[in-house]
Amino acid sequence: MPHADGHEPPAEDSPPGYAARFAALRASLVPLPDKPDETVASTLAALWCLAADRPLSASSAREAVLPPLNQTALRHLDDLIERRLRGEPLAHLTGWERFYGLELMTSAGALVPRRETELLARVGIEATQETLRTRGAAIVADACTGCGNVALAIASTTPQARVFGADLSASSVELAESNARQLGLSDRVTFSVGDLLTPFEELAGSIDVLVCNPPYISSAKVGDMAAEISEHEPNLAFDGGPFGVSLLMRLIAEAPPLLADGAVIAFEVGAGQGPSTVRRLERNDRFVDAAGIADDEGVVRVVRARLAGK
Question: With CB atoms 3.0 to 4.6 Å apart as the test, which of 121, 122, 214, 259 could cross-link to 247 if both were Cys?
Fold first, then answer.
């Protein structure tokens, strides 16, 4: 059997029924740019595996060998394809998404992890590793943790760090805790429910690295988003208020008392928000070394700064 890579496999090597469904899906599916792993081939592979009672993320399904399906499973597959074409997110159907090499459970109660947010995870990991080299220990806090993807990526790559995550959504925190358990990271990551930085108040003055992927879409633009996002993913996770920066401004204002001397703060921003956010931090005497980190297209998607000496 062929591996389900990014190309249509030769018809003679495909499981029966694959080629026709690939052609139909290719004619109707419009993959979103913020989910680059979800090609037509990986989408069909993930739904194929789900119909075979093997739920996998799109990334894992792309690497899988697709089994033959009986007629009952093929009818289930056709139903899954129809649900996907009606806008139901693939990760909600399969219940899985890959992020920074980790296979994470997903649900409708939390934002589906995006590839673009791996840049924030990388910045957080680098800051945590730098702290470990200089201080021998590190406390990391992840606000707006969602399903726990950034917190768990940091914990999985820096086992010496102690990581805390928090979210206003109780269902997101429950999902994050489930992900920590299935990854074997529960002993090093603690999740709490609460508004933005409130759950970290007991860590005041000791946080070495603070990361956050806050909602940053302006309220007026939410209606212009793809229905797959606006109608299926939680509004709380992407509506950033009238100008899209409400929580970004709160982070900058509320973070200093919680941070250790010289601590790093890093957060994801929307396309176009980076330069102005860097300038805002440069004018704030509580922070130094403000900088924007660009993605592969040269767009600043993460802003990083360090707390000035107390």
Answer: 214
